[in-house]
Amino acid sequence: AQPSAFYNVAADDSIRTSVVRMASCAPCLASCPVRGRRSNGSGAGDRRQRRPSRHRVAAAAAASPSSPPSSSGGGVVSGWDLSGAPSGLVLSLARELEVSWMTLPNLRDAPCAPELKSVDATAPDGDPATRIRIENLCLQTDVFRKMHLEVAWGLGGLEVLHCVMYPWPDVPCPIFAADLVAFNGRVTLGIADASPVAPDLALPDAYVEVSASLRAQMLALCAVIEPRPLPEWGLAILSPAACVCVGPPKEDAEYQHQAVAFSGYARGLHAAHLDLAAAAAVAASVPADEGASQYGFGPGARLAAQVQFCEKQLLNDKTRRVLERSMGSELARRYMTEVLFDVTVETPLRPDERL
């Protein structure tokens, strides 16, 4: 099929199933075209002195004044320091998501170790092209057990937005996941999904309808959307109906039509997810008729699906290797299992089960 048919809403089901499924919703650092070991000369990392033969990792002590530790949703939450992040689509989308989160009711911090929440790391050889800065928002509401928003930059020009919203397993709705990756300002990868928590990868009808509408809007903005190859391990956790994965070509760099169109899809799916998840939480709190089925077949089954989502994501060895080079193996392991993909069989099903 031609690229313009890749996200054709009218395409038959066999085509949609084969091409819409996407890569991991966190290809993140590994999928980016980091070339060589030399810095682009534009970042603060270029001025760092050569270091001893050990990984240099520092945790930032305070949030940027531009990201105050507060919310209008009821609680006081920690901020983050994006003062050194490059301007562009990655940063602007991160700020938009942050602003929308600050309006949520009963917003509070989710657990996150300080040394993982804000990271400044460089490889043992001191090569400034290996320096990486990572800032994270880790929040929680009565609907979402963990709302994780990451912005990373460095490695000679890399920019990453990574977002995953894990609902409490007691809430019958999917996981929202998205990534936007750029290199020296040019977006090279965009991914957004409502990842199912049903064994057959089905989504609630409302998500399917919203996805189709947003997909049509995306194509109206940019009729040609280039696909991105998918790793085999991602196919068990991604939605055939909602996943969108784009890999804008170099020719798109000047105006970034594909990247902008994809960003609209990601924003729209995120906004719909906030509303649909809140409605699902309310509906789940009302006693259902006897024999009525619930999306995901109950909290235990939804927790198992979230565990599988994390297990599959952790198979991404490319991401692990990139993080290990800058952060060291132990901190990279902790970052992947405690911050990025932290669901286990011990994860609480609902807010009142928090420790």
How would you describe the overall organization of this protein?
The protein is 31% helix and 17% strand. With 355 residues, it is α+β, with helices and mostly antiparallel strands. The radius of gyration is 20 Å and the shape is globular. Strands 1, 2, 3, 4, 5, 6, 7, 8 and 9 form a 9-stranded antiparallel beta sheet that branches. The protein has 8 helices and 9 strands. Helix 2 (89-101) runs parallel beside helix 5 (257-285) and helix 4 runs antiparallel to helix 5. Mean pLDDT is 81; it is low at 1-53 and 60-66. It starts with 12 loop residues before the first helix and ends in a 15-residue tail after the last helix. It has helices spanning 13-20, 89-101, 114-117, 205-221, 257-285, 299-313, 317-327, 329-340, and strands at 56-58, 108-109, 118-122, 132-140, 144-154, 158-167, 175-183, 186-195, 244-246.
